[in-house]
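re: ur question from yesterday

yeah so i grabbed the chain u mentioned. its 288 aa long if i counted rite. heres the sequnce exactly as i have it in my notes:
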Amino acid sequence: MRPYFLGCPMWANKEWVGRFFTRGVKNTEMLAQYSQVFSSVEGNTVFYALPSSENIARWKEEVPEGFHFCMKFPHIISHEKMLHNVEDELTVFFERMAPLGSLLGPYFLLLPKAFQLPSLPLLERLLQRVPEGAPCAVEVRHISFFSGLPERRLNELLHRYGADRVITDTRGVYRAIAEDPNLKTLRSRKPQLPEKPYVTGKQPFLRLICHPTWEKNLDIMEYWADAVAHWIEQGLRPYVFLHSPEDIEAPDHARKFHALLQQRIELDDLPPTPMDVEGGPREQLALF
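ran it thru and got these structure tokens back, copy pasting raw so excuse formatting
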């Protein structure tokens, strides 16, 4: 059994060709190459459109047993309808994902900033609809949920249903935004909220939105490596996803995070990247 799951927000990024993927990789080969190294992925594309049943079947064949897809609830459920009258959409979503079976990690529900305390009964109704045995991870973006009664009520609700509260740390990317005004559009997509090591279920769900230069994240990474190591020692099975601007550096950052964890607890090495197996010089990362 894996002690934790590690990955990126996607498995297909053309910027990874010659750096992580082999030079001649085809789009249809990227998931297989990605899953040789990492154990999980955020299913962010599902947020915008449901994949076809044919794609689901193909993905299932391309990854090893033990790999986990953390599929994001579609935008229509979380943002357009804000959990109001979404029974039909939930039925379609869960039925479409069901063939993944044991390859399903936590369903990932990202709620908009407009979602606040009075809407918690809607969240409870959704959690009641999640298929039995399927975990769920919930991210909130309104500041009220990080203190006082709203925080307590949310955490109690998630704990009652065995759901995990998503932890998103954007400090690294905000350091990058301070250096490069061209990244300022990330502010609206990556809100700056308190970073708390919430544990409401059994699979803490951690998203680290990083500065592209690893060393400028190191204090943040050291903090979370301590937290993840502690969770693992407690018998929890965390999910950790590394992001960066355009996610160019995400695979390299994820591998370095794993190395930090190895300094704290006993873990196997990650497999070499497909590019390392192929050999030859890597493509030069663009300077930030």
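noticed a couple things. Residues 218-233 form the longest helix (16 residues). also The chain has a mean pLDDT of 94.
anyway ttyl
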